[in-house]
């Protein structure tokens, strides 16, 4: 008997949140589980095309892929009208979908600032827009209770390293730069990047997340300087893992990398809705709304945050398929969000053919992506019997019997296109 109590305690302690190191600043992020990325910049004006030619690859990389010199690339600024920019509509789109935070590109690899910078004149002042789009977005987020994340490319800045970018072999994406003509990182860090981080963290009120990207050849000391800047200026602001050397507050999954079992680390997955982050007018390869919803659920079932991207056009409108996807998720979240927010990973050792599982204390949420064989579900290894089984969105009760194995018989009329969630309440924490 004592042995089984000991084993039970051991299992309780090794699961879900209890493994995370205590960090109160991470609490909102762990609770959120879902965010929205916004990639917006001069590449949104080019929209995947240069001099009438379609340029392959992700849209925000167009300057690099098409080898566009600064003098020509800069001209895109006059087309960056933001004429229909309604930041509050963006925030509402995110909020209605159930996203709890927004990550906004304040400066991507192209080097162009989506805010008024005193450090660089390659900023929104060169556009027809009168105002500071970042300030307006932050204010809208605050008004609607959405957490603010700022993307900042802290090593790659093609505007500062034109000669390197124009070189054919420049490969900045994953590897270290090959070019000899890349400028000294320290100069860029001290004279541009850190001063701009200071602007971002002192001019816009409370920032919740600083999202760095592609550390490349930075030394550990240099990466640490970017973490320290945040700690110093806004100690409660969290930092993502791509700052380099695992110095961030949470880690990162690569493209299409999904762990097949629960993870004990704080991780985030970022994903596109088509094949690009920045807007490309000829990318019509949209994922299905249900598939995006499934990714959100799958991430939650692994204990991972999911951040889905939108790439607005130069005038500030978000492509309709992205709006449709966000609204589809929102429709589902209206009645099912409690199976996502604040949950931890699937506590079972099994993966199930019918879908994914999340858990919150004594409650299990079974996300039914497809009809199970025999219209019934068997759960092995429950530590306490089920007390109540119901469909989350309708409250309809579901019949079950528990001996060694719990067996649930599903209602006949479930619409699996809308991913019904079966909610199981148990006596004690499961697993
Ligand atoms: C980076 C950027 O280069 C890209 O333009 C976009 O902003 C994306 C969100 O982030 O691209 C990466 C960086 C790292 C990985 C994948 C894409 N990775 O580690 O798998």
Automatic annotation (TrEMBL):
Alphabetic keyword roster: Glycosidase, Hydrolase, Signal
EC number assigned by the record: 3.2.1.51
Domain Glycoside hydrolase family 29 N-terminal: 22-338
Top enzyme category: hydrolase
Domain of life: Bacteria
Signal peptide: 1-16
Summary of the function given for this chain in its UniProt record: Alpha-L-fucosidase is responsible for hydrolyzing the alpha-1,6-linked fucose joined to the reducing-end N-acetylglucosamine of the carbohydrate moieties of glycoproteins.
Similarity comment: family membership: Belongs to the glycosyl hydrolase 29 family.
Name of the protein described by the UniProt record: alpha-L-fucosidase
Species, as recorded: Bacteroides gallinaceum
Lineage: Bacteria, Pseudomonadati, Bacteroidota, Bacteroidia, Bacteroidales
Residues of the full protein shown: 5 to 435 of 600
